[in-house]
Amino acid sequence: MSNLEKWLKEIGLEQYFSIFSENDVDDELLSELGEPDLKELGLSLGHRKKLLKALRESNCDDAAESQSSKLTSNNQASGYLSKNLPNPPHDRLSSIASEPEKRFLSLMFCDLVDSTRITAALDMEDMHALNREYQSACAEAIRKFNGYVARYMGDGILAYFGYPRANENDAEHAVWAGLEIVSLIKSMSTRFDLPEGLELSVRIGIATGPVVVETIGEGTSGENAVVGEAPNLAARMEGLAMANSIVVGPDTHRLVEKTFALKSIGPQSIKGYSQPLETWQVSGPLDPGDKSPSRKKEHLTSLIGRNEEQTLLQSRWQRSLIGEGQIVLLSGEAGIGKTRLIDSLLENILEPHQQIRIFCSQNQTQSPLHPFITYMLRTAGVIQGDPRKASAEKLAKLLRNKFNYSDSLLQTILSLASIAEPVKQSSDGPEGSHGQLDPQHLLQLLQEKIVDSIITDSVYQPILLVIEDTHWIDATSKKVLDLLVERTQFNRIMMLASSRTEKPISYSLSNVTNLSLSNLTREQSNQMVHEIMENSDLPASKLLEISEKSAGIPLFLEEVSKSVLSLDHTEPTNDVSNSGSRTLSDMSNIAIPDTLQASLLSTLDRLGEAKQVAQYGSVIGNTFEKSLLSSITNQQEQYLEAK
Known about the structure:
eight-stranded mixed β-sheet, alpha/beta, five-stranded parallel β-sheet, 13 strands
């Protein structure tokens, strides 16, 4: 009997084991499921609540209790917390290796402001309830963005992003989780009778860097600890933060600056650092659409090796201009240059047209119509920090005047954008004649209205609709694409959708073109590296090494080249603070840039049992005999091939 089946039997829900198995839900994935997923799998309301409650309780099974004990220090307070607090997604029904492991993490320290004064102002029972709700809210936000609660320390929380499983945007996930925590804790103040002048708020610090993770201690005193600069720096960042603010260090800033608005708070003297460090406060998320115009300024090279693809896209655009609607499905692995190719098309279209560019998000795969709602808000001029009333007025003006949306659909959009309360019922359909409509029906009408608006607009002006990262598209937005594809063929519309190779979207129609991007050739890779490094003193052998290590992936080529260019050009000195300096010409190896660490680690973590084999292989080199690998790993060649 598997761990999952045993656990389901213990909580009285063993009848769902076969359903989970049929849908490839294993021990690890179970804790990632939310209520919408469980509803889709056919669980009743009562059983959904029962299962989610069991997942939140730390003592639901022996494995979870063991895991929880590793996450807290062996003292009275942490002993209580380990039995009563909700666990993050990777805490339960998953195994975490006790062997030391080098990782690249983003670490978050979160602390409740003025907790001493709040404790003195409340009786013990009220403070207990407040503390439980505060920690539960933080754990839920961390869980939502793939984080891992490593330790509860009274009113402080330490979380890892990138362990035990890496995601390609762990630093961004940490900041998203921080913003969510700030929002949740702000809203908690109204539910507790705090004395005048006191309100709930948090300080959050985030730092990123290489660490070693290991389990220290034995039995109930064991915990997963990290060794490296990042944990200490995250704690220092938290100490610099004001109430309800997030402060990040230099490495985190470099990884998230294209996703969030960041305000420099200047160089800060940090204990343990010989020189002041530049630090930043997070203001909020950037609109993805706002980044598009500046992207071309970020590229280090001209577009290399994509002439055929550029010509094909231009030809499909020209055909759409005469009413032969086109669908282009652009696929390729991460970093292969999908967005770069899209930017090139947009830069070279000369004909008057309407451009709709939307972005799917890894963090919004369960948010209905998220990319379309975000586009509407951007078009309406709604910005981060706008009061709800002002946001609603801007959106209402746009949708009523330009698209003739009804009040019911407007309310649906406002609720999906978290500007208004969720729609429960409406008597007003698009034309006021649909009677009582439930939210699901309203959502369906909204999908059809979005499609109708695009089709109607194409009569007056050609439309280029770009949907990026459809491997993260939510189901309701995918339905909009399906409807558009059905109606595009005889309209002046070109739809260009990009996706990762491992999860492409597909349609079988005559006006659909599948365009897959391959890696650059060796000659093209060398051309790109030489263009980036043209003013450096790096020898030709090192340029070739950069090209070879990057495997023909343009993003890798650019990031590795930028990393090399950023090396100190001064000769090594006896100064301890400069002991790592070296010239480009005597650089002995090429390190993986921080910007690629999370992406590569996430790929490695997805290998499961084959991960260790891949790590052995990476030490040996790019090519080796199976017999050598078999000898090193003490595993038969046939078993290695299966992995």
